[in-house]
Amino acid sequence: MTEKTRRRASSKGKTLDLIRSAGPISRVELAELTGLTQATISTVVRELLADGVISETGRGESTGGKPRMRLEINPASRLAIGVHVGQDYITYVVADLGGTVVGRTRVDGPGDASPITIVGRMSDDIESLIIGLDLDRASIVGMGLAIPGPVDRENGTVRGVPSLAGWSDFPIRKALATSTGLQCEFDNDATAAAIGEYWLGATEGYGTYASVYMGSGIGSGIVIDGTIYHGVSSNVGEIGHTSVDARGLVCPCGNIGCLEMYAGPRAVVEKAADAVANGTLDIPLTGRISVDFAAIGSAAEKGDGAARALIEESAEYLASALVSMVNLLDLQLIVLAGSAFATAGSTYVQIISRILAERTLARGIHGVEVRMSVNGNDAAALGAATLVLQDRLSPRSLRSVTFA
Amino acid sequence: MTEKTRRRASSKGKTLDLIRSAGPISRVELAELTGLTQATISTVVRELLADGVISETGRGESTGGKPRMRLEINPASRLAIGVHVGQDYITYVVADLGGTVVGRTRVDGPGDASPITIVGRMSDDIESLIIGLDLDRASIVGMGLAIPGPVDRENGTVRGVPSLAGWSDFPIRKALATSTGLQCEFDNDATAAAIGEYWLGATEGYGTYASVYMGSGIGSGIVIDGTIYHGVSSNVGEIGHTSVDARGLVCPCGNIGCLEMYAGPRAVVEKAADAVANGTLDIPLTGRISVDFAAIGSAAEKGDGAARALIEESAEYLASALVSMVNLLDLQLIVLAGSAFATAGSTYVQIISRILAERTLARGIHGVEVRMSVNGNDAAALGAATLVLQDRLSPRSLRSVTFA
DNA sequence: CCGGCTTACTTCACTCACTTTATTAAGCCG
DNA sequence: CGGCTTAATAAAGTGAGTGAAGTAAGCCGG
C-alpha cells in the first residue's frame, strides 16, 4: 500500500465496495450508483486495475452502442487473517477480498496463560497457517483481532474482559504486529461481526443495522450509514447489559436486570441445571457453558419441550431488548451471529422476528429483518479479517469522522 | 443565500460554529481547532465577515508579536422562528444566531382543529410576532417546526402522532412554507431540543450525546459526532417505548413494559390520583396531565414525602432506561429538556446522575454527565429555530451523510 | 460494406477547496 | 530604531473532482 492507495481513498473504497457487492458491473453503472461522473470512475477504475484488485471480465450486451465492460473483483489478490479469541477457543481464518474463507483453524482458548505466551502461540499459529496454505505473503494486507469485550482501540489494549483477566493494559496490538510482522487491527467481536456482515454483502441495501453477537456474553455492533459506530470509548453495543427488568436480578456488572442474566447462555444453562435437578429436563450437562448451551439448543430443535421452553424464554428476552434498541435507533435489519446461535439460531430468528413485527413503534412504516449471519461460527474471526480489508481498502467506511 | 454560501459550506459552517461557541476567538485559534491552515481560515473568515454574520471586535494581548484579532458572532444578523406544537400549547420563539430568544409567545394547543385551520392560525401568529417585534424580514432565515412524535421528513408530513390525529399525511411543511413565505424545516421535538442544545453551546466539548425530552410523552434525540441521527425513517430516540420490564404492563403502542407506562407524566399522575384517593397524598388534581404533573413536582420539591416518592420512582425508571441507552451507545452526556422537567428537574438530574454513576458498564472509564437543558420550557421551540439556523449556516452538522 | 446512430469509455482543460511557502503587518523589547 | 516574534494575507501549487469534446465499439439500414 503505497501513498497512491491512500489518496483518493474514499472514492476508491466506495467504488471497490460496489464492485464487490454488485457483482460484475460496468463503469457506467458505477457512475450512476456512486454519483460520480464517468470521467472520475474511469480514472478510479484504472487505478484499481493497476492495483490488481479488480479485472475486466468480458463485455456485456450492447444496448444499441458500445457494450459495457464488465468489472469484477479479483478475490485472491488480497488476503487478510482474522483471529477471534473466544473463551473456549481461538479461531483463525484467512479471508480473501471476496469474503471467502481460504483457510481456518481453531485451537484451545487462552486459559490462564500470560498474554506474552499467547502472543507467541498466536504468531506461531498464524505462521503455520500461512505456510500450510502456501499463501503469497505479499498479498496479505494484515491481521485483525476480535475480542469478547471492551477494547481500547487508541492504545491497542484490552481492558476489563473477564475471560482475559491478565490482559488488561497489555499492548496486545503492538505485540502481535511486531511478532507477526503484519499490520494489526482490532476490535470488539460483536463489532467485528457487524463489519464482517457488511463486507460480505449480507446487509446489501441496508446502510444502517445492528449485529447481535452471542458467544459467552451478548454484545452488539452498530453500523450507521455504512460507518461502524464506536461511541466515545468504544464501549458500545453492550446490549447484554441493557436492563429488561428495572427491578430484576442484580448483574455482576452493577446494573439491574441485565439481559444477560435472563437470556445469556450461562443463564439458560443454569435454568437447565435446575430443570435437570427437578427431573423436568433430561440432558447430560458437562459444566462447560458453551457445550451445555449447544446441547440445550439441539434438544430444543429436536422437539424437547422443556429445552424449547428455555430457548424460547431466552429469545423472548432478547427480543424485548431488541424492540427497545429498534425503537431507539430505528433499525431495519438485525443480524444474529456467534457460536450461541449455531444450534438454535432459526428458533431465535423466528421468535425475534415475530416479536419485532408485533411491538416496534415504526412497524406500520417499515418492518425489521432478522437474519442469521451468513458466516456462522466464524463470524467474529471473519469479521476481524474484514476489519483489515475494510481499513486498507475502503477506509471511509470504517472510521467514524470526528467532528471538530 | 447565493451559490457562494453553499460552496465551502462545511468549513464555513464549522468555523462559524466555533466562533459562536468558543466566544471571541482569533483566526490562529480557529486554525488550530479546525485543523485547517491559517490561510484557509483567513479566506473563510473574510467570507463570513462579508456575509455580516461575524465581526472583528478589537485585538487580543500580544504574546510577543502581532496581536490576534478577536472575531465574534453578530447575533442579530440572522434570525429564525421556532414553533413547538405541544399537546396543550403552541410555543413560538424568535431566536438569533447567538441562541438568544428575541421574542416568544404561547397560545392554546391545536385541539381538534383541522390542520388547514392550524396552519392559518400559525402563520397569523408568526406574522404578528414579526410585526410586534419589528423584525427585519431580510434577516429571517426561515422557520422550524417541532412536533411531539414521528415525522416523515422526506415528505414533510406528520404520521401517527396521537395528539395530532387529523394531521396524518397532511403536507404541513409545504403548507406552512407557502403561507408564511419562509423556508420551513421540521423534526421531532426531542430531536429539535437536542440540536438546540448543541447550537447553544451547552454540549460544548461533547460531539456525541442524547437529549431526553419529556413533555406529554418521553422522547430522545441522539447526536453522534456532531451529526443528528435520524435512523432509517426518522423514528428514532423513542426511549419512552423502550421496555423497562419485559413482563410488565402492556403499552398502547403494542410493546410491553414501556418506560412511559412507569415514568411518564401520565403514569405519575395516575399513581398520584390513587394516592389521593387513599389519602396518602394531598394535592388538588385537575385532570390535566401537564398541570397535575407540575403540581406533583413542586410538592416533591417542597418536601412532600409521598409526592417525592412518586417523582423518585419516575426518575429511577427513567434512569434504568438511560443506563441501557448509555451501555448501548457509550454516551458521555445526557441533557434533560421539556416542560415535564420544569418543576422537579433537579431531582431527576440528581437521581439519574447517581444511578448512571453506579450502573453503567463504562463507569470505570468515563462518567456520564446529566444536565438540565439551558433552554427550559422553550427547548423544543428554540430547537426548532436552531434547526433552521443549523441548516442554513452549518449544513454539515445537520444532515447525516448517506452512504452509497 | 459503409456511413450513421447509439452507447461506453477516455482525454483534457478547468474548478474548487484546500495546502505550502513567502510576504506584509503589527506589536514588544533592548 | 532595528531585531524579534507572532498574525494575517497573498501567491503559487495540488489533488479530487467536473464538463465537454473526442475516440472506440457495437448495431442497423440502405
From TrEMBL, chains A, B:
InterPro entries: ATPase_NBD (IPR043129), ROK (IPR000600), ROK_cs (IPR049874), WH-like_DNA-bd_sf (IPR036388), WH_DNA-bd_sf (IPR036390). Pfam families: HTH_24, ROK. It comes from the Bacteria. Coiled coil: none annotated. Belongs to the ROK (NagC/XylR) family. This is ROK family transcriptional regulator.
